[in-house]
Amino acid sequence: MNDWLPDIPVWQAPTGSIAGVELCAAVSRAGGIGSMGMTWEAEEEGARKIEAVRRITDKPFMCNFALAFAPKCLDNVLNAGAPIVCFSWGDAAPYAKRVKNADAILGVQVTNVDGMKRAADIGAEFVICQSVEAGGHVQSTTSMDTLLPKILDAAGDIPVIAAGGVSTGTRIAELIRLGAAGVMCGTRFVASVESLAHAEYKRRLVEAEAEDAALTMCFQDGWQGAPHRVLRNSTMETWEAYGSPSVGNRPGEGDKLAVNGHGEPILRYEDTAPRVGMEGEIEAMCCYAGMGVGNIQSILPASEILLQLWKEALETSN
Ligand SMILES: Cc1cc2nc3c(=O)[nH]c(=O)nc-3n(C[C@H](O)[C@H](O)[C@H](O)COP(=O)(O)O)c2cc1C
Description:
Number of strands: 14
Largest sheet: 8 strands, parallel
Bound molecules: flavin mononucleotide
Helix content: 25-40%
Radius of gyration: 18 Å
Shape: globular
CATH architecture of the largest domain: Alpha-Beta Barrel
């Protein structure tokens, strides 16, 4: 029934625009599951990316839609043959049938027992248990060690993939021992050769400690009201020094921090992560990071990261 699960139970998290074709394909080709964020993708672009991954590997990979936004390229992605589709941040029920009719595997990100039950009701074939240690937008309010046993209890036979602050083989072994069918790592793969993160963002991840990865409401522009975990930086320190004011009253609001590859401005407080091709004050931008960031010592090819993590996990278990 779960014969589609990967040889290596390590998934690369959908990390928005940072995880493109090369990163996704590299992880899947090496035996894990790679993924791409499709939430903000234009319709034809979603299909183009599926086809591009397929040209590199025939292994399964995942596409994510954060349902705080309409999943505008869902049909294109399904028609192009996306093997696994996962929804986060919203009610997946209206889309479940479309995924199943396309013979794709349906996954849902859950952060509490009610969410787990709803995912089971709509026929989710796996769930992602996201905990509060996660980097990026954080749907969860609960630590992994508290949340995972509850989700596992409610999941029954549905495989549970644990996401949030996972960046060592030792932690992977622990979570699998608890009963997770796999783990999902986001920040660890942002600091990979293939990720589309800006070189300075990757360098800051390598230098950071766990306490530098703060949960905040600072970078709200683009996605209002969603907590996110990022590296502390000058924008955040100044905003906090002013008492964390609301939108419209923030220091330096409207400052142009950088430009993207098309010369379009990135403003202070935007939720856009620094990508290759951007130029400007990268440090002051929204650099997402989970609490496992302190264990990241180097920027390596994604396949090496995957194989090293899994080797370390196996050594810990033996
Ligand atoms: C740069 C970045 C972007 C992310 N974008 C998304 C996204 O588009 N959709 C989503 O469901 N989760 C997103 N996440 C959260 C991840 O799916 C995952 O839950 C998280 O990375 C796990 O924690 P970790 O970073 O500590 O490994 C993002 C995370 C990061 C670091």
